[in-house]
Amino acid sequence: MSHKLTKEDLNKLTVHGIQLDEHDVVPLTSEKKALQALEESVTTVQHIFQEIRQTGQIPILDIRNEVMPAIVQSTEQAQVFPLLISMQAKDDYTYRHNIAVGAISSMLGRWVGLPENELAILTIGAILHDVGKMRVPETILNKTDKLTDEEFEIMKKHTLFGYDMIKNCIGLSQRSALIALQHHEREDGSGYPLRLRGEQIDYLSKIVAISDVFHALTSNRVYRNATPFYEILRQMYIGSLGNFDSQILQTFTRRIMNALVGSMVELTDGRTGKVVLINPTDPTRPLIQSNEIFIDLSKENQIHMEQIIG
After folding, report:
1. Angle of helix 203-217 versus helix 246-258 axis, rounded to 10
2. N or C: which end of the chain has fewer CB within 10 A?
3. 67 pLDDT exceeds 90?
4. 206-236 residue pLDDT tens
5. Crossing angle of helices 116-127/203-217, nearest 10°?
6. Among residues 52, 163, 150, 47, which one has the least CA distance to residue 99?
7. Are the C-beta atoms of 93 and 106 separated by less than 8 Å?
8. How many Å apart are CA 55 and CA 169, to the nearest integer?
9. pLDDT tens digit string along 150-199?
């Protein structure tokens, strides 16, 4: 078992006359360093958002200098699943969610081929997509029961508040402001606050919309347990969680499911097997090898993946 040594740990060892040599210390891999930096940025974002609630101002330099590098490093150096697992919400969902949506959006932005300048706008906008919630009363924001209709109407205004805060912040792109405004819009006009459709929604906002829902539903919350990521992908893919941009969602689903190839899974009928091939027409229904039998989930509609077991 490994343990990250803190300064306090080292002081205790020195007090007890214990000296470490090179064989006692295992250097962190670049991936672990990146994920560690990402984890530490959650606390940074918590302080930043508390400052925003108190002052109404966005400390953009702190975000660029302390948060952005951790997200960029993690999306460049970490594999898909370690990144997603590290971002699953613990007891700090509100702040972890902002980092997670920033990281997932940045990763997805690379997958769809965004140039570096747009990736930067996307990542900052994704980190700040919920910044308008700092103007929502904390009694509503922290409520564990279902919101009343009146409370939900107030909650929905976080999109307008966020847009206003970002567009008036010198040094931030108007497209980052649009992300805050539009990340709850849907392709068919069923979203809010403006019920925009299709091309009326900025492309970057469409990326964040997918990342936002994916992370929210794959995280434990006070009022419900997390749903397995592949189940959320399936529900998003068939449209039961809203109408998202089909091409972006196809890319997102295919890349995550491809990272599952080689993993052992348990199926809803009790059988176990290895994911061997992703179906290009429906990535959420892969080909599974169980002993000498191949199970094509695209043709076995009553069978689903129950859990990943290795």
Report:
1. 50
2. N
3. yes
4. 999 999 999 999 887 766 778 888 889 989 9
5. 50
6. 47
7. no
8. 13
9. 999 999 999 999 999 999 999 999 999 999 999 999 999 999 999 999 99
* pLDDT at residue 303, as a whole number: 92
pLDDT value, residue 128: 97
For the domain spanning 30-226, the CATH number is 1.10.3210.10
Contacting residues for 77 by C-beta, under 8 A, at least 6 apart? 30, 31, 33, 34
pTM for the full model? Answer: 0.86
**C-alpha to C-alpha distance for 252 and 88, rounded to whole angstroms:** 17
Distances (CA, A) of 41 to 64, 68, 83, 244, 289: 12, 9, 14, 29, 40
